[in-house]
């Protein structure tokens, strides 16, 4: 298969119609490449507009090449957050080590970018909004596959038959549930729960993050640029997922407050801020692992199919690279079954390698025992004087098919 496949459909008589559910990262990226390949694309997103704000995300390795081919790398470089320091603190707030973030995650010589998630989503949407139909504030109610296509009924009542349906609807994908069954079958719990929210930057932090740890608990403040708001993050180990709390916002607040009761540093103020936050998001840390990503005329991409968790730091990059590879496979193979098989063959190993990074991320960011924390701190002190670590091979393990010809 060559990338010529990505322009193959242009000019053919009948455009194949694809519905993408989800306008996060994978959805608009896939829409871009499918449109270029001559597909008629509709994207349905349950939110009323592209979701802005949010925590910073990384575009690394292979995904950097994807955004370069989309022509948006210069804009992403402009939006690059340029975090300059990551400071680790002990239980009392004393400094353990202060590092260049690249010394920790590995950086490909200034090639990778870190941007606000909302900035990336807006840039992707802006790139395709004139070429693709977006249905905001709507979602798929039911879909029914048959030999000729997929009959879709939307929540709004609208109905249409598509050739193919793609679930790009994130970690808790409804498309996945409809096709393959409940999330529990595919969700691999990684032992942590987290709460993220924003709070005022009363600490004077700028272009930096601060991470406080005790065994099994972590509290982070992330200053994106010179913003007067901070991303606050409370993360804790729990052997079993708190299933009841996932359905009960008040129970989430109480659980986090109980776990961090008596903690030092600025943690009490963070817990207070969490209680007053209007953007609190609480979840378990987990991955999506599936034996197959397609069923009939429907297929999954991004977090819906292979969320790696923030501990791997590769969710956005997998979403971008996966979208490219799925579009390439669909353009190269008229038969969707062959296309989905090619997509899976092309991406599976890359996904596995990047999901495996989560273990290292957990050990580095949230050690669960006093001994592991001490080892981690010793390692960090060693990194203070070391040059930036090389990027993990997993980031670039996927070599994209040849460059896409300009439309
Ligand atoms: C706290 C946290 C920190 C993170 N940090 C990083 C990081 O440092 N680096 C990194 O690379 N990644 C990070 N990630 C992960 C990253 O945000 C995702 O992996 C990435 O956005 C995946 O893109 P996606 O398009 O597959 O899913 P999403 O971005 O989740 O997009 C899914 C879209 O589908 C929509 N949707 C959901 N259900 C429906 C429905 N039924 N119908 C229609 N639309 C629907 C949603 O509204 C959303 O717009 C982090 C995630 C979290 C939670």
Automatic annotation (TrEMBL):
Pfam family, one: FAD_binding_3
Annotated GO MF terms: FAD binding
Domain FAD-binding: from-to ranges: 17-338
Domain of life where this protein originates: Bacteria
PANTHER family, per the entry: MONOOXYGENASE, OXIDOREDUCTASE-RELATED
Name assigned to this protein: FAD-dependent oxidoreductase
Species assigned in the record: Streptomyces carminius
Lineage of the organism: Bacteria, Bacillati, Actinomycetota, Actinomycetes, Kitasatosporales
